[in-house]
Amino acid sequence: MKICAIGDPHGDLEKIKQIRLSNIDLILLTGDLGSADLMSKRAFENIERKQKGLSEIEYSPAQKKKAFMEAYNSTIKIIKYLKKFAPVFTIFGNMEFFNYKIGKESREVGATLAYLINNSNSMNNVRVINNRVANFKGIRIGGLEYFVDTNWVQEFKPSDYKKKLAKAKNKTNKAKKVLQWFDCLDILVCHQPPYGILDKVDFKSAPKHWQGKHAGSKIILKYIKSKSPKYVFCGHIHEGQGIKKVGKTKIYNLGSGGYKIIEL
To answer: What would the pLDDT profile of 205-249 be if each residue is shown by its tens digit?
Structure first.
């Protein structure tokens, strides 16, 4: 059986089309499916402003809607293209919107925005596996949705530190429980890399005070060392693209639109 894992597409359909997907039995995606140029630019700009003690830029409802639709429409195009070749299992990265956030955004922009997770799961051959185990022809695949690990907050020290640390603790505890429930897997699909593995920030557009820091998750690293899945596929830190081994586990950071085909 051939499985193709693809790193954060970010809406680059032309790059995805270069992958030979004939005779592939399953496609795995590491999140951040759509283009997030507008979202990223605005987020990084406000992070830099906070670092300088400046107030955040408030964006208009029309600007927010434009950014949302850029990500949503390009996500749907990626999914519709890939599902023609094989079943698609995906998780959500930090650029996807969950239903509760879409509801909030809809109220803010004064328009009804599409629910990505509902629309994705309603398509034939597509399955969102956030915090779920999917058994595909005897292969156990765990999908861990993106979360902010407490070690990230402690290392990157964002504004509203105490508030974000408390929120991160809740998310990290949830991720820890999910990984305990996963137990032994053949494949773990997660968005961010494990801590210290292919996770160093060296992205020119990222805030200066982020450069050189490790953005991976210690919880994910601990799970890998404990349970030794055969493969881990991740993305998020695109400049960390590559392969490393931790014990018996092969860890692939697939970057943005990079891919790996394995046979099991």
So the answer is: 777 888 999 999 999 999 999 999 999 999 999 999 999 999 999
Residue extents of the structural domains in the chain: 2-263
CATH 3.60.21.10 given to domain 2-263:
yes
Q: What is the secondary structure of 147-210 as a DSSP string?
A: ---HHHHHHH--SSHHHHHHHHHHHHHHHHHHHHHH-S-SEEEESSPBTTSS-B---TTS-GGG
CB 29 within 8 A of CB 89: yes
A 10 A CB-CB count for 146 gives: 23
Q: Which H helix or E strand runs over 101?
A: helix 99-109
Structure tokens at 164: 């974000």
The structure's pTM equals 0.87
Q: Quick one: tokens of 227?
A: 């349970």
Task: Identify any residues that bridge with 259 across adjacent strands, giving them in sequence order.
Answer: 6
